[in-house]
Design goal:
The structure holds two protein chains of two kinds. By secondary structure, chain A is an alpha/beta fold. Helices cover 33% and strands 19% of the residues of chain A. The longest helix of chain A has 19 residues, at 76-94. Chain A is globular and about 60 Å long. Chain B is α/β, with parallel strands linked by helices. Helix content of chain B is 36%, strand content 21%. Chain B has helices spanning 38-41, 46-62, 80-93, 102-106, 110-119, 134-147, 165-172, 176-184, 218-228, 247-258, 278-288, and strands at residues 4-13, 69-74, 125-128, 153-160, 190-197, 207-214, 238-241, 265-267, 294-301, 304-311. A ten-stranded mixed beta sheet of chain B has the order 3-2-4-5-1-6-10-9-7-8, sandwiched between helices. Chain B starts with a strand and ends in a 5-residue tail after the last strand. The chains are: A alpha/beta, B alpha/beta. The interface between A and B is large, with 72 and 74 residues.
Amino acid sequence: MSDTVTPSASPYRIGITGIGAVSAVGPDVPAFGEALKTPGRVFVPNNRFDLDFEVVVGLARPDWFAPSDHPELESPTGNLCLAAAGECVTQARRRGGAPPDGLIVGTSTGGQSCSEAVMFSLLDGTPPPEYDYKAQGCIAGPSRLLARQLEIVGPVHTVSTACTSSANAIALGAMWIRSGRCRRVLAGGGDALCHTTITSFHALELTGSKMCTPFAPDRPGLTLGEGAGFLMLERLDDVLADGRKPLAHFLGAGMSSDAHHMTAPPKDGNGAVLAMERALEAAGLTTEDVAHINAHGTGTRLNDDAEARAIHHLFGDRLPVTSCKGLIGHTLGGAGGLEAVATVLSLVEGRTFESLGTTSIDAECPIAVVPPGGTTLEGASVILSNSFAFGGNNCTLVFRGLGKNR
Amino acid sequence: MIRLHLHGIGSCGLGTDQPYTDGFGALENIPIKEYAKANVRRRFGRLAKLVYIAAARAIEDAGADPGELAIILATAMGETTVSVDLLRQIHDTKGALIRPSLVPNSVHNSPAGYLGIGLGNHQPSVTISQGWLSAESALVTAADLIQTGTANRALVIAGDEANPSWMEQLEEVRALEWSAALAQQRFQEGVVALVVGSQPGTRELGTVIADTRRVERPADGIGPLLERNQIELNPTTAVRVREGAGGSGLRSMVAAATGLSPEQIALDGPGRGTAQAGAFAVLAECVMQNECDDLLLVGSEVDELALLNWRRRENR
């Protein structure tokens, strides 16, 4: 990577001072980090939802959904997000930071589990559970639960762009800092699995009883998971002025639209190319500066082919590319947040993590995938994290490790 | 935090294509054929149609290049008709037999996705959902995208659908409290779109700023919110409160914070504040009908406050 690129060259100047994660592999960041280093399959046959087909999924344990003091605002997605967001804030506070003054949550389903329960009861003619749509069932429900439980005073928004939701939340949270709206933003998101998501992907024949193998030949499709991931983004000058040290730098984001199809990317991945190019431009970097990519890598034929072509178009096959989906599944609105946490862990650990389930690479995917055991990274490496979604929505985030220069 | 220049407005729904009603209001006819070709509109859900029409009208009003606009959609509920159909099919077949075509329309950003495809737009696209304060939140997002250079101009669209079939379906499952609530809230279907930028446009409709914040006590939060956004009231400022987001309780708080009497603060009128387009619908009426030259609109939901301030002229 180039020696001339410094975080101060980025217009964002944002440090990451806390991370939080919950997923099928564990309730917190230490569990996630350990699973990334020594991965094993945790997917199980669905045993939570009453469905007439078989599917393997990545489920969080019931006790990993954080309880709150506000049950009237709770939903499974809200409680899952609260677990990760609470861990993130706690870590940032332990490291000397102040409470967040803004919250932005990405989720594709919000309180859909609550809406399902009510709807199914009504259709069955049984009394529905106590329910307040505006508080629990709507997309904004999780953000309002987090804001109240974590006592956040400031702007509170919810982004819902399907599988880019939490990546976009992080991108917009960074803009809140850069525009002067906030100094410390808790940004990320999550999704609990529900009937709607599982049956929807089943209807599209994108998921089933086999486990995902991103970028591999004959890959069977994606494996759904649930989880949440959050970052604490802070104005870097504040962090440094306090004598604190961030975990990593957030350098910028690139957002784009395919303008092609609601569920399929263009074959050449031009929307993904645009997102990565814009992200590098926002960060003041070139392709030569990038050391690693945490891919969206869902394991579906169309997505992996298009993303691999997009990466190859910009970087050739020189970069190690990984996907977290073989480990935690596709966590939908939580994917961008969890993969951002994985990216920060890569920078902190100075290594890449293997792409679990990928033992060989499809000829249609002209990229280099991180091998078992991972590879090493320089401390100040730059990593891109890609997220793509229905609606042709694309978001790339850019991170950099601390290296010798803080 | 910047004030945005308003370059164009378009709307589709009650108040534009059909008069507001006293109860639950849904459009009888959505004129999508006039705006989108058959191959483009083929898979649109009901909300996507409203969004597309409002966006097309705003783009035409602004004389904007549709490919240069970041798209920010605000919707509290998304494609509700689709979601209800999907849940019925999941319930009836235990998920084994649902129509695949419903799936892409069930995600919250699907109207924005269809709009991007129809416009051939590769710009950033964000869908914001913050309950009844979504419109103001989307305008905040537009301001930051523009201020940070992520976008030059933005198409900010807010609204929700209201399908005539909902009342029948709710009555069918004996959810009578819900159908009564929809009628009582005067839920009105509608979408309003704005084209905004950081500089004056060829068509200039004034400047606008929005802000949203969660506060510990709404009564204590209004003053600081006005100060933070450098909003000073003058004798010509029309001060209004969102009927569907705060209502008369918020009116007394705004009165206390501004020194006005509650009688000087209007609720935003039948229907307009109850649908998601609420804040933008009021703005559109002020702009297009010359109702006032300076508008301050305040809304509240849960423990969040939102304001929107529009000025026809900046030479004050």
